[in-house]
Inverse folding.
């Protein structure tokens, strides 16, 4: 049994909140650079170049990648041989968010009461915490701040089984057309297929955050669906920031989960070009 204390977790989360808001992951930077090289529309090329310049300057200036520093979602893989001391995991995560957003001078955007617009908690807590028990004696935390614009573009459907594969494509691409430039494309799309109402949504968000960008699903059928969804999304012509071009999405990740024979749950997690996340292992 391995012991991890409250302070170790809180400090790691605080640092991850700041790092995630200042540094785009290398796979996202590489995808933006490739999109710039392949884009032909002048306005789209200019926007992609600006996004890359913003990502380059952010660590130098200490200013966040986006003024919306987001709601913090944390994916925690907790080894079954880990013993947490000094407080609960949730308390440690929230203390880390509290410190990170204060120390990093990051915008606090969380309301205690969704219907009371004056109820800002003042420290960007609480975070949304998803916990999964795994083998081993490690604690792996992925901290993912996400802005309201792209989160608002996400969606969940309970399709009928008869709608099948084409129904999945139609729903996802229809939603991309509907939201247009509002979620700040180019986008990364996470698709959760199967499970239940809530499991599909969790799978969709995991698909965006936990898999390296453009790494295909090992299931060949799902990899083919990812390719078809990416092609269809880019064929909309929405383009960077909604101003036209061939780069509406940088990648599509599909994750699936077994489901009831009478159901076809589908969820879409829309992530803007500022795909911020940081993983630490304790």
């Amino acid at each position: 049994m391995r012991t991890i204390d409250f302070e170790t977790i809180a400090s790691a989360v605080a640092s991850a909140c700041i790092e995630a808001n200042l540094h785009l992951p290398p796979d996202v930077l590489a995808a933006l650079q490739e999109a710039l090289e392949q884009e032909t529309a002048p306005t789209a090329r200019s926007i992609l170049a600006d996004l890359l310049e913003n990502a380059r300057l952010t660590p130098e200036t200490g200013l966040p990648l986006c003024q919306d520093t987001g709601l913090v979602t944390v994916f925690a893989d907790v080894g079954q041989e880990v013993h947490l001391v000094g407080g609960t995991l949730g308390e440690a995560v929230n203390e880390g968010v509290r410190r990170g957003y204060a120390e990093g001078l990051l915008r606090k955007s969380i309301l205690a009461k969704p219907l009371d617009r004056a109820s800002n908690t003042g420290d960007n807590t609480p975070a949304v915490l998803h916990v999964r028990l795994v083998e081993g004696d490690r604690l792996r935390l992925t901290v993912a701040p996400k802005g309201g614009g792209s989160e608002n573009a996400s969606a969940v459907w309970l399709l009928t089984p008869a709608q099948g594969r084409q129904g999945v494509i139609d729903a996802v691409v229809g939603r991309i057309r509907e939201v247009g430039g509002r979620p700040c494309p180019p986008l990364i799309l996470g698709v959760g297929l199967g499970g239940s109402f809530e499991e599909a949504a969790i799978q969709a968000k995991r698909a965006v955050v936990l898999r390296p960008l453009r790494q295909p699903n090992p299931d060949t059928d799902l990899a083919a669906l990812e390719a078809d969804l990416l092609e269809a999304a880019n064929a909309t012509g929405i383009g960077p920031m909604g101003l036209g071009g061939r780069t509406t999405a940088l990648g599509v990740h599909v994750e699936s989960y077994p489901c009831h024979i009478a159901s076809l749950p589908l969820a879409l997690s829309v992530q803007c070009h500022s795909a911020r996340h940081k993983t630490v292992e304790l």
User: Anything to note?
Assistant: The chain has a mean pLDDT of 97. Residues 2-20+65-146 form one domain. The chain has two domains: 2-20+65-146, 149-275.
